[in-house]
């Protein structure tokens, strides 16, 4: 498509670079911004800039944070004895939304997937080890997706740490097999974290 302005063309190109947005939608969004007061577009731009330059990862759990340690990890009212293993920060948000979990988290940053070339060394298994070595955690809860990759990841972690004095559990699988955790509805996710079951090698 030919654009009457290089500035517009560049903006459309950048917006269309986001997932799920085609050139047409990108143009619509750019034109929308031009119809709004300039302050709105400037505020959006600043917010995107802050997002990519200022966001930090919690050094304890790898959740997003505005400081070195996130609000969940620094909350003294939360139970240090429970450590919930999730793949992604979106899973932390999903579980937090249920309001049914008051322990801590550890964000793995993915799951073991030979197909995608992701092995244990690319995940934050070392951070789990560090947490467990502190000797406070009593229960390690797997809240991984009910997929082969999720199961493989849980099994790997279980095998690596099963000799330690820690209980292993898994969120109840009321969620249909193959569903990603982030898409589970709040009520069933809340129920599945409350009714978690002991983890054994059979999964
Ligand atoms: Zn944290």
TrEMBL record:
GO process terms (BP): DNA recombination; DNA repair
PROSITE patterns for this protein: RECR, TOPRIM
Start and end residues, zinc fingers (C4-type): 58-73
Keywords: DNA damage, DNA recombination, DNA repair, Metal-binding, Zinc, Zinc-finger
InterPro entries on file: DNA_Rcmb_RecR, Rcmb_RecR, Rcmb_RecR_Znf, TOPRIM_dom, TOPRIM_RecR
GO molecular function annotations of the record: DNA binding; zinc ion binding
Pfam families attached to this UniProt entry: RecR_C, RecR_HhH, RecR_ZnF, Toprim_4
Listed Gene3D superfamilies: 3.30.60.80, 3.40.1360.10, 6.10.250.240, RecR Domain 1
Signal peptide residue numbers: none
Domain Toprim: 81-176
Taxonomy, superkingdom: Bacteria
Role this protein plays: May play a role in DNA repair. It seems to be involved in an RecBC-independent recombinational process of DNA repair. It may act with RecF and RecO.
Family, similarity comment: Belongs to the RecR family.
Name of the protein described by the UniProt record: Recombination protein RecR
Organism: Epilithonimonas arachidiradicis
Gene behind the chain: recR
